[in-house]
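stuck on this chain:
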Amino acid sequence: MVSDFLLNAPPGEFHEVVTDVRKLLENDALLNEIASDTFRDYNTQQMLIVDAPDRSHKVLVTKFGEISPNEYLDPAGGLVFTFDHFKQEISSSRDQSGELNSEAEPWRSVLQSKLDEYVRDFYGRGCGAVYSTSGTSLQICITSALFNSSNYYNGRWRSSYAIKVSAGKASLEGNVRVHVHFYEGGNVQLNTNMSRKRDGLVAKDPAALADVVVKAISEIEAEFQNNLEINYDKMNKTTFKALRRALPIFGSKITWAKITQYAIGNEVQGKK
């Protein structure tokens, strides 16, 4: 139960949830027992964005770049960094000693360059990383987050795409996830995802693959965004409308321009 609470902590609020769970649990020994694995799982599932060791760019902490429980690839910087899952920061780094797949690297590097352009265009606070898994199999991760606790909202976008290349063709299978938390005077969360697949993408060379993959990602993520807008509009016209009382309790419509003439209007004014 404790792990489940922690793993479902809203973006940007993990340490606050840890503090609350600790008070509820009143058992530091048990919390410490699960902390190492749970903290690592949360950070990698959230695909945290952190500054590279030399602060020249951003890097992601993901399962796809994990070499050991605390070591992660920075493909763009040619480094392996050690990540402190408790402090959520990089503690050290070293050169990557053959961790990159040499066969897939030409494909990975070109795709990384194309992905960087896409992220710059659409994610002001985002970061994208391309990992080579085996042969010409690649994994793309994109993360973007906005934390504003002083105004009671936090949120994170995460999308990941597995790419397999064979005989001049490629397939792409991806998932887009958004988790947003509003908690001013209430507690409202949006936690949603969408999965899509594309087959038969042209992959005659790294440049051609990069073009079609980023185009497919752009289309998938635009579709996801549009679906959110449509659902919000439907909710406003149906779900939220159904929650509201059609008429006040006294059975007649309120003329809002004359609200001060109603008893409730006078009460509100008196409280102000």
